[in-house]
Every structure is written in C-alpha cells, then in structure tokens.
C-alpha cells in the first residue's frame, strides 16, 4: 500500500522548487510515517536546490520539522501513532566505532528510512538530510523521531531539528560555555541567536553579539546579548577585547563560516580560549596565519556539527525549557507559510528580515 501526498521537490540544479504529488509507501520494519505539523526553511534546503550538497536530484526538501506519528512499521518500539515528535538527522547506530567509544555525536552510520518516497512515475526522491519534510507526511526511521511534550507549538520546536539546535549546542555542548564565562558570537542569524540563547541559559557573564546588520543586533539583544558590535563599524577583535578587560572572550563562536570571521574569532579569544566554528564554510575557503600564533595562544579550535547534539538527550530538555519560558524558541519563527511559499522564503533569507520562515500544515 502507498499514499499520495503533496511535497516540495527540487528537480534540477538552480531551478525553482515544485509542489508535486509524492508517493509515500507504508512503513516497513523500523520505519514511521509522520504527519508534518511544522517545518522550518533552512539555508541547507537552498544549498540542495543549487547543487551544493550532492547531484542526487530530485530532492525532497525540508528537514527541520515536528509532527505527529501516523503509523509505524514492524519492530518499532520508540514511538506509537499519536506521539508528537521532532525529527532529527542524527539517529545514532550504537554500533560504529564512534558510538562504541562513547562519542555518538560523531556516529558514522546514522539511520534513515530504508524505503524511498517517489514521484508518481516511480522516480526515487533523495530526502534532504535523510528527512524530507516539506510534505504532508514523510517516511523516516524510528530513531529520527524524538518524542517531546505535545503542549509545545510545532512551528517553534520544529526548529530544534536543525539550525536552532546547532546554535544552542555550539554554546552548550561544543563550546561548553559555563556560568561566569565571557562569550562572543559572530553572525546573528538563527544559528548565532540560538548560540546566544544557549550562552544565556547556562549563565555566561557577558555575551557579545557581532553582526554587520543593526537590526540583527537588536534581535540578538532580545535573545540575551549583553553587548553588541557592528562589524562594519570598527575592528571586531579590538571591540571584543575592549569589552573583556583587554583579554578576549573565553569562547568565541563563528556562526558565519568565512575566513575573515574565523580569523576574528581566533584572535578575539582569551589565551587558552575556545573557538567554535558552527557556520559552514564553502569548499574554496582557506585560512593563512602564522602557526606560532596557534601554538602560543593555546586553547581549543573546534567545529560543531548539529551542535554536537544527541536528539534523545537534548530535544526533550530544550522543549521543557521552552515551555517553562526559559528558552524563547517562538522568537525564531519570523513568519508562518504554506508549502507553496518555499521559493519566496528562499528569497527572504537574503533580505536579512527573517530568522526562520516556517511551513505550517493543518
Ligand atoms: N554546523 C551545523 O550543524 C549547522 C546547522 C545549520 C546551519 N549551519 C550554518 O550556520 C550558518 C548560519 O546560519 P543562519 O541560518 O544563522 O544564517 P543567516 O544567513 O540567517 O545568518 C548569518 C548572519 O551572519 C551575518 N554576517 C554575514 N557576514 C558577516 C560578517 N562578516 N561579520 C558578522 N556577521 C556577518 C549576517 O548579517 C546574518 O545575520 C550557515 O553557514 C549555516 O549553513 C550550521
Ligand atoms: Zn554509530
Ligand atoms: Zn538545516
């Protein structure tokens, strides 16, 4: 048995996405069908459309989503029909060498659905990040479903499925920001603002937001930045040092991923401080700096994939903090749109006027 629903598909590199009929098979062993309630529009969806991730067209886009389990295949024990879940792209295997060494955030063999969703002519779709959630119902592996409190707004908690968790985790997990730390975050889009919210949550003493856009800096203040620096006006490294008694910040998070922002992060940290790269660099980017600067400054240079999150550990906690009013997830939702509005949402990403457009279904 199959069912046919509406889904947003990218068929050709760089061409506008299309809302088409998608055939979803009944869930097989370990698989689950989730009725999508909300799905954020992430930059990575646009990168898929433009050929920056792979050439495996057609893609079924969308990957930061929450919804309700509709049906489950044999052997599914993690969830049951009616459960409210946030989808994740880190369903860890428990068997690979990273998992066995107790570092499941680096799992080499994360689970996805075994069966493919297809176009009506049978062409198999490649789901974005193994999810594919700009669709009425999607097919995923049970491990990709994390059960959370159904009292939460699906549009807000959907965002934990990618960018917001990446930012929160860049602070809390990768950067290990702690009470009394000084933190600087370069780039205050959805990811950077989540890093700021994370730093506030764990009690950072000073949180310095850096962006080229004053409106973004105002939003960053709403998320918990105590100081702001406009990178277009003046020297970012000096400004961060001035705000930290001349020392630099304990943790500097680069949520842009350009050579200039990473270099600023490198020099704007205190001796022995930590740099976290969570912005995704393009493959052409190079860094050129004296190796002795790295040696003599000590500390840690880290990157953060998906905020080093473990969905089963982190999603329910973040949802609880949100419901308690301690984590303003709903402030990331700039607009609620339909499945037919994805191209408009891509265009708005570049305008700087939205943190996240979120597709809301039903
Ligand atoms: N590591 C991960 O797992 C992960 C997950 C999701 C997204 N990301 C990446 O995180 C990055 C940020 O994503 P986003 O959704 O917040 O993007 P965004 O475009 O909404 O935000 C980027 C921000 O950086 C600012 N900016 C640009 N150039 C700057 C500069 N030179 N100095 C200071 N600020 C500058 C922009 O004004 C904007 O506010 C992207 O590279 C995205 O691909 C990483
Ligand atoms: Zn593994
Ligand atoms: Zn994403």
Automatic annotation (TrEMBL):
Keywords: Metal-binding, NAD, Oxidoreductase, Zinc. One of its GO terms (molecular function) is zinc ion binding. CDD domains: Zn_ADH_class_III (cd08279). Pfam families: ADH_N, ADH_zinc_N. Gene3D superfamilies: Medium-chain alcohol dehydrogenases, catalytic domain (3.90.180.10), NAD(P)-binding Rossmann-like Domain (3.40.50.720). GO terms for biological process: formaldehyde catabolic process. Its cofactor is Zn(2+). GO terms for cellular component: cytosol. It comes from the Bacteria. InterPro entries: ADH-like_C (IPR013149), ADH-like_N (IPR013154), ADH_Zn_CS (IPR002328), ER (IPR020843), GroES-like_sf (IPR011032), MycoS_dep_FDH (IPR017816), NAD(P)-bd_dom_sf (IPR036291). Residues 14-359 form the Enoyl reductase (ER) domain. Belongs to the zinc-containing alcohol dehydrogenase family. PANTHER family: ALCOHOL DEHYDROGENASE (PTHR43880), ALCOHOL DEHYDROGENASE CLASS-3 (PTHR43880:SF12). This is S-(Hydroxymethyl)mycothiol dehydrogenase. It comes from Mycobacterium triplex. The lineage of its organism: Bacteria, Bacillati, Actinomycetota, Actinomycetes, Mycobacteriales.
């Amino acid at each position: 048995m199959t069912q046919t629903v509406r889904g947003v598909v990218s068929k050709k590199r760089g061409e506008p996405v299309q809302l088409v009929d998608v055939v979803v098979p009944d869930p097989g062993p370990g698989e689950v069908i989730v009725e999508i309630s909300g799905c954020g529009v992430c930059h990575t969806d646009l990168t898929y459309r433009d050929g920056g991730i792979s050439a495996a067209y057609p893609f079924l886009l969308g990957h930061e989503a929450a919804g309700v389990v509709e049906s489950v295949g044999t052997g599914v024990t993690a969830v049951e029909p009616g459960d409210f879940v946030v989808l994740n792209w880190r369903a860890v295997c428990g068997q690979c060498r990273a998992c066995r060494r107790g570092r499941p955030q680096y799992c080499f063999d994360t689970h996805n659905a075994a069966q493919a969703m297809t176009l009506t002519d049978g062409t198999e779709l490649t789901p974005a990040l193994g999810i594919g959630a700009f669709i009425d119902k999607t097919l995923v592996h049970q491990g990709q479903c994390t059960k959370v409190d159904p009292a939460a707004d699906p549009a807000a908690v959907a965002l934990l499925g990618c960018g917001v968790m990446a930012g929160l985790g860049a602070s809390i997990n990768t950067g290990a920001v702690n009470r009394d730390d000084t933190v600087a975050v370069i780039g205050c889009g959805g990811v950077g603002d989540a890093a700021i919210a994370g730093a506030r949550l764990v009690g950072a003493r000073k949180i310095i937001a850096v962006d080229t856009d004053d409106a973004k800096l105002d939003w960053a203040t709403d998320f918990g930045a105590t100081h702001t620096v406009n990178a277009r006006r003046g020297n970012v490294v000096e400004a961060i040092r001035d705000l930290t008694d001349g020392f630099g910040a304990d943790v500097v998070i680069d949520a842009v991923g350009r050579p200039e922002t990473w270099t600023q992060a490198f020099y704007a940290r205190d001796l022995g401080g930590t740099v976290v790269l969570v912005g995704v660099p393009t493959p052409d980017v190079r860094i050129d700096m004296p190796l002795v600067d790295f040696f003599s400054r000590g500390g840690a240079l880290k990157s953060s994939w998906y905020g080093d999150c473990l969905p089963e550990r982190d999603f329910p906690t973040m949802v609880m903090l949100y419901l308690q009013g301690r984590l303003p997830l709903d402030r990331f939702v700039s607009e609620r749109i339909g499945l037919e509005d994805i191209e408009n949402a891509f265009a708005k990403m570049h305008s700087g006027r939205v943190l996240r457009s979120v597709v809301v279904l039903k």
